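Sanity check

After download, print the first record. It should look like this:
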Amino acid sequence: MRRLPTAASRELRRVVDPLDEEFLRKTLPDPRAAELSPWHAQAWWRQRIRER
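Expected structure tokens:
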């Protein structure tokens, strides 16, 4: 998105932002993270796929 013209980038961001918010709202912690290590259990959010 960084290489798009300003107007196109703005329009795409307008469409993508609500989708990002819904994705993050629906993303839950990994229920098996505690089985891997305390690091995984405490930092489940690091496993989310998020591009900004």
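If your output differs, re-run the checksum step. Summary of this record's structure: The helical segments are 6-26, 33-36, 38-42.
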